[in-house]
Amino acid sequence: MRLLASLYEDADLPDAVVTPSGSLSRHALLEEASRVADRIEGAPIIAVEATPDLPTVVAVTGALLAGVPIVPIPPDAGDLEREHILRDSGAAGLLSGGHLAELPVARKPLNAALVLYTSGTTGAPKGVVISPGAIAADLDALAAAWQWTAGDTLVHGLPLYHVHGLVLGVLGPLRLGCRLIHTGRPTPQAYATNPGSMYFGVPTVWSRIAGDPAAARALAPARLLVSGSAPLPVPVFDDLAALTGRAPVERYGMTETLITVSARADGERRAGHVGRPLPGVTTRLVDESGAPLPSDGETIGHLQVRGPTLLDGYLSPGGVRPPELTGGWFPTGDVATVGPDGWHRIVGRASTDLIKTGGYRVGAGEVEDTLLLHPAVREAAVVGMPHPDLGEQITAFVVAGPVAPADLIDFVAGRLAVHKRPRAVHLVDSLPRNAMGKVQKSLLLAD
């Protein structure tokens, strides 16, 4: 079955894709994308300047029609990042604003749909190779979980070079046939003034919407408010539920696995939890030695996943390097708890969010959520700093109004086990974030 199945339907959909610069019907999009496909047919791989606008949708669609893998380039990428992605991917051309610039290339053709580059937190960004089959399996599983149909209108303003904004936010509507409205930027006003049945956002977006009650109430007619790419703080979850009358749907995934766990449209939504595995996906928790851990809702372990949505591998000079799997299990690098009913709570990255202090294992997210309950606190990030006695010291970086660090330490100690309290609190003007709104804790650890 074609990945972009809806483009071939007989019935046209006027304004199938709407952006700040214009709109296209389903048939007009197919015509424009087909012209792009004719220009790049036979190329081993093509880079796309992924501006949040109509030319990117056309370029991506055209490449997929031609069977040419796509490498999205962030429009705000610095010179070094841009040069690395173009050189490492071996892109034969760069599509930008409807124009094609040819590039020298030595790359052999790939059997892939996308090559998405990771954030490069542990070195130079790596190209993750994703097949059309993985994307189709993921979108079909999400369609079942979210009851996502051609009758929906999806609204979002997310970047078009990540899984959330590109795979779910563009390829999802093109596969399932629903209308897409991209707002250019994910502002509360833009979301409030564009009626839809589904809205996608990251926690930073939802936090700003929750802070604008009028904008939040305008989303009340929608059936799904979906949050992902980072944990949604519990206070934001609660505020959205109160203002819109609908608790948000959280989901979990990563570039290498696409989306693997989610709450359901017709089921429960739990603050601080991301739901159960999607159809066809299985998960497990293991300890540092790889031994399975119990799903008791308390034990924190390393999360592994397997299923049809996994990457093919990582781009390398010789082709595609397969991922390192253990019996088909992919190590996500995240730590989590899983309840007896299958509900997952993501603690965070094993490298930064699992804090080993004084013989205890503490999840940074639990401490962050508790800090956010304090009326003076607007943002919080918790990390483990090296400590000669404890191993790691729970340390909080907080954006807040007038409040003493000692008062915040006591506030947490009064609500969680005393060993989970921060030993140090730093008041800061802002937290470092990437384009998807994730706090860059590696920068906090380097301070």
CATH homologous superfamily placement of the largest domain:
ANL, N-terminal domain
Please give the oligomerization state of what you see. single chain
Question: Within the largest sheet, what's the order of strands?
Answer: 2-1-10-9-11-12-13-14-15
Based on DSSP secondary structure assignment, what is the total number of beta strands?
A: 26
Low-confidence stretches: none
Annotation keywords:
about 25% helix, Rossmann fold, globular, 2 domains, about 450 residues, GMP Synthetase, Chain A, domain 3, alpha/beta, 26 strands, 9-stranded mixed beta sheet
Description:
- By secondary structure, the chain is of the alpha/beta class.
- The protein folds into 2 domains: 1-348, 3-Layer(aba) Sandwich (Rossmann fold), CATH 3.40.50; 354-446, ANL, C-terminal domain (GMP Synthetase, Chain A, domain 3).
- 27% of the residues lie in helices and 28% in strands.
- The chain has helices spanning 26-40, 54-66, 79-89, 132-146, 163-176, 188-192, 203-210, 213-218, 234-244, 364-372, 405-413, 441-446, and strands spanning 17-19, 22-24, 46-49, 70-73, 93-96, 99-102, 114-117, 127-130, 153-156, 179-182, 198-201, 224-227, 249-254, 258-262, 276-277, 282-286, 301-306, 313-316, 319-321, 330-338, 344-349, 354-357, 360-363, 377-387, 391-400, 424-427.
- It has a 9-stranded mixed beta sheet with strand order 2-1-10-9-11-12-13-14-15.
- Strand 12 (224-227), helix 9 and strand 13 (249-254) form a beta-alpha-beta unit.
- Helix 7 packs across helix 9.
- The model has no long low-confidence stretch (mean pLDDT 92).
- Residues 104-315 form the AMP-dependent synthetase/ligase domain.
- It comes from Actinoplanes xinjiangensis.
